[in-house]
Amino acid sequence: MSFKMCRSINVSWHFLRTKMLAKVKYGGVEKYIKIPQIDENFDFQKFLQEVTDKFSLQAQLVTEGVLSLTDTSETEVDADTFDELVKSGVRNFKVGYRQYPVTDSSVILDTSPSPDPPASLASTPDFTAQSPASSISSDSTIILPTTKNRKRAMKDLDRDKARQRVETALSSKPKGEEIFKEYDKTKTLSVATRKQMVNILVAEMIDTYGRIPPMHVRASYALGIVTLFPYLQDPYSKHGYEHYYDPQANTGYLAWRLKTVQRNTHDGFRECSRPDFQDSPTTQRESLLTLTGDQLLGEECREALSIMRHSTDKSVVREKMRVTFDYRQKLVHDQGATASVLDVFPRFLDTAGLIEQDFSMMFGDHVSGRFFARWSSDFKHRVITECQSLPSSPYVDELLAASDLEVENDYGWDSDMSALMLLLHLLPPTSKGQKKTPKMSSAQATNHIVRFIKEGASLTTFLDKVDARQPFLLCIGEQKKKIERFFIVVDQKAIPCNAQTSVAAFDVLFKTHYVFSLSYDEAPSAFYTFIQTTIYNIDVGTTKETPRVTELRAKLLQDH
Question: Is domain 3-97 annotated with CATH 3.10.20.90?
């Protein structure tokens, strides 16, 4: 064997065994990508999968045949020619989208021999000349592209265009690299970093489109953010990006920053019409038993009211309360009613469990049990972890120490209540834009949710001094971490709560708003809204949420 032949064999063997790299261009960006090998052949499908991973594209683009691979001459490369091209030295490729994806179609034409061709084919004489299926035998099936597939491809193009727009804007700024690094490390963005990102994108948006960018442009930037940083998506909202820009309400971080810039430049703009959001606790709802005719009316209802007032049998009281639910709901929603619901239904004040019963009649037991089931298992530890990265302060440090079961705590709340107050710190009160109103701290807002008095103190004296209009949880015990009795305070009256833990007691407090049709206290309104939509899943999409609520939900629900 000659030296040249041996050298040729060695070179070929080395060529096949060496990891090959190809330069791939997609959307104006070029990256080197390894070319996978199987049995000394370069694998076309696995290479396309590597491309989708490298450019963060959707995996189904490969399986559905949407992606198109071409060489530098714009000639399409397929599975049959890919291996030979790579071995011949072709290393530069370009990835794009096919004009018409050809899989998962709902339009299938049978081309079996027939006396007359289908009218649709007869009216398009160039179809067989243009379609790769023209050489298929007459007893085969042709799958035509569908509108659904074309729309899907266009949607993917829009999403990718939005991602590139945001990526390009951030990459062009010195602070952009810090944003990418923080997200890569933590899979989220701190408040300060999120503000930097929004400022960069709004500045770029204004430079390109003027002070009043079109709504579709704002939505595109928001889409680009959650596409580039998928862990920032809100899983409960319609598009996942409404906390950055909500086209219906013209709210979100991008919209707010735009308003600030416009206000500072004295160039106002006409507001969009706002959707009608419902105030969830005050929304009138029917009992689950209403449709079955199980509710009492007229004289029967009045008789039931009389019976429950004087009965000493708790089971009788609960049953009469159950069948008068509709009457009670009409009362609490009647703005002109002169009588308090606690005057008409005084058994709330001496019979524990009636609030939970009414709430279950509104939503069912499956919703009623969600907070108790999900707080400790799904949310508590995530809230604590999120607060550990906050700047140190005496209030936060005290709550973090109290939330740790392994740390001795003689003065603070128990672990669960401390974690709930940490959630309040993540969703602090806002001034609602009223400059004359001093901003309330999270520590001050705590008194709007829970208060403590020592065992032996006069409950009557405490209630006489209460000035709160909204319900709050009153805890009585020797120490905050060892509560012996819980009450829900409404209208300066104490409703007993038979809860044995702070989690169960807070659950009753939340439900009180719905049972008595009471709006959330303004200071912890974001806190209550988060619990309502994210944990109880009540009125998701119809309740107005601040961007901070949806941003926190995206952080806490992400899977690292």
Answer: yes
